[in-house]
UniProtKB/TrEMBL annotation:
It comes from the Eukaryota. This is Cysteine proteinase CG12163 isoform X2. PANTHER family: CYSTEINE PROTEASE FAMILY C1-RELATED. Residues 249-468 form the Peptidase C1A papain C-terminal domain. GO terms for molecular function: cysteine-type endopeptidase inhibitor activity; cysteine-type peptidase activity. SUPFAM superfamilies: Cystatin/monellin (SSF54403), Cysteine proteinases (SSF54001). It comes from Drosophila hydei (Fruit fly). Keywords: Disulfide bond, Glycoprotein, Hydrolase, Protease, Signal, Thiol protease, Zymogen. InterPro entries: Cystatin_dom (IPR000010), Cystatin_sf (IPR046350), Papain-like_cys_pep_sf (IPR038765), Pept_asp_AS (IPR025661), Pept_cys_AS (IPR000169), Pept_his_AS (IPR025660), Peptidase_C1A (IPR013128), Peptidase_C1A_C (IPR000668). Residues 23-52 are annotated as: Disordered.
């Protein structure tokens, strides 16, 4: 991927030396820090620090992707934004420069998005000459701008990557029409991968996965989570979240280390994520209750749960109810997975676990989720899987607009949580450990680490669990 990025991102940079901030500029900066009310039209207004940090990170990523100045963010003190010809964002921050020295800097990002070279960045760091840089607003623009030979080269590059992809994932297309179509989707997905990488706020890397020749619609169908209608009661009780006995929650916890999580399974090309999410939850609860780790049957749910739609999707809440009505779950070995709906052949004498009901965890409260997980076991969740299609590892924290909290399309299982420290970046990333059902070759041996604390990709929108009988 690196090579592809390098081949298509053109960076435009002019580094010029300027004097340190003038008295007038200092005055201007101090005015920035005044309240909202005395700001005239066209004046600068305080700007959300988190958003400013995001914008700055994106800008730094774009610069370092080429040969731009290398800075890392340590801390953002304050930010303001001003409507100029375009917008001018001023960020007061501690940065680490290319020589690993930390400095207090005022960064100004002047954006004129309607212009081709629409971003001008100035770094004015304490005791340092100012540095001026510029980057183009988009890769597409850069692609258009670079001449034919370059285009030709990157086209070959895509062809080559596509060829490697076909071999690695054993793709055979029916005819040349399908081949062309898949190549087109693949090329589009390379752009999406780049966009995810450019805007990543955690430590995740996105690259070519076995889903790289699928459209997002095909991929979503394959995941197979239905949307829960907001106004309809789910029939689940509100989860009682017991307060944690000590003042502070453990920094990390992992049910895999307590022998409560089975091996990573693979749903295949069937939209049955919901069934895997549910069996994972029940496997955990059962192991914690009995001390015995067993795999339970998803196929029984595909065949016998008539509320859900087998390979065409379903909801975890429906499945808990169905298990209660059917009379329990058989073992995986007795009722093996076929990735296809068949006749129901549930045998009551082989029912090894029964369900009394289910609970819905409070929405948008990840602390409550942590407490519940510690006290009870793994949690079924729905999330937006946009960033999962191309996930290759790390703590995934995609930029909000690339992963809407409302578009939940995948059912998975939270089995633990932790915190990753990146001392070089002065950054700590809290995360959830998420068990997926796409086989052990996907992600981090079948697992996904997703940022914890700001409802990334909707992780806390649809958190549920069965209650065992
Ligand atoms: C149900 O399972 C039991 C135990 O394996 C077996 O003896 C019985 O024949 C099965 N019933 C049916 C209808 O298959
Ligand atoms: C989140 O849940 C915890 C534990 O149940 C509770 O103490 C806290 O008040 C909740 N926070 C919010 C914002 O609802």
């Amino acid at each position: 991927m690196k090579m592809y990025v390098a081949a298509t991102v053109a960076l435009f940079l002019l580094a010029t030396i300027q004097t340190t901030p003038t008295a007038a500029e200092e005055q201007e900066l101090s005015r920035d820090r005044r309240g909202l009310n005395d700001v005239p039209l066209g004046g600068s207004k305080p700007f959300d620090e988190k958003q400013a940090e995001e914008q700055l990170q994106q800008t730094l990523d774009k610069l370092t992707a080429g040969e731009g100045p290398h800075y890392k963010i340590v801390k953002v003190y304050s930010a303001s934004r001003q409507l100029v010809s375009g917008t001018l964002t001023r960020i007061d921050a501690d940065l680490i420069d290319g020589n690993e020295e930390q400095r207090r800097c005022i960064v100004e990002i002047w954006a004129q998005p309607w212009l081709a070279q629409g971003h001008e960045i100035t770094f004015k760091c304490h005791n340092q000459p100012a540095v001026h840089a510029r980057h183009s607003r988009s890769v597409e623009w850069a692609e258009k701008k670079t001449h034919k030979k370059h285009n030709h080269h990157s086209l070959n590059k895509v062809d080559h990557l596509f060829h490697v992809f076909q071999i690695k994932y054993k793709r055979r297309y029916a005819n040349s029409v399908e081949h062309q179509m898949r190549l087109r989707i693949f090329r589009q997905n390379l752009r999406t991968i780049q966009e995810l990488n450019d805007n990543e706020q955690g430590s995740a890397k996105y690259g070519i996965t076995e889903f790289a020749d699928m459209t997002s619609t095909e991929y979503t169908q394959r995941a197979g989570l239905w949307q829960r209608s907001e106004d309809k009661p789910t029939g689940g009780a509100a989860a009682v979240v017991p307060p944690y006995p000590s003042a502070e929650l453990p920094k990390e916890f992992d049910w895999r280390q307590k022998n409560a999580v089975t091996q990573v399974k693979n749903q295949g090309s069937c939209g049955s994520c919901w069934a895997f999410s549910v069996t994972g939850n029940i496997e955990g609860l059962y192991a914690i209750k009995t001390g015995e780790l067993q795999e339970f049957s998803e196929q029984e749910l595909l065949d016998c749960d008539s509320t859900d739609s087998a390979c065409n999707g379903g909801l975890m809440d429906n499945a808990y109810k169905a298990i209660k009505d059917i009379g329990g779950l058989e073992y995986e070995s007795e009722y093996p997975y076929l990735a296809k709906k068949k006749q129901c052949h549930f045998n009551k004498t082989l029912s090894h676990v029964q369900v009394a009901g289910f609970v819905d965890l409070p929405k948008g409260n990840e602390t409550a989720m942590q407490e519940w997980l510690l006290a009870n076991g793994p949690i079924s969740i729905g999330l937006n899987a946009n960033a999962m299609q191309f996930y290759r590892g790390g703590v995934s924290h995609p930029w909000g607009p690339l992963c809407s909290k409302k578009n939940l399309d995948h059912g998975v299982l939270i089995v633990g949580y932790g915190v990753s420290d990146y001392p070089n970046f002065h950054k700590t990333l809290p995360y959830w450990i998420v068990k997926n059902s796409w086989g052990p070759r996907w992600g981090e041996q079948g697992y996904y680490r997703v940022y914890r604390g700001d409802n990334t990709c909707g992780v806390s929108e649809m958190a549920t669990s069965a209650v065992l009988a």
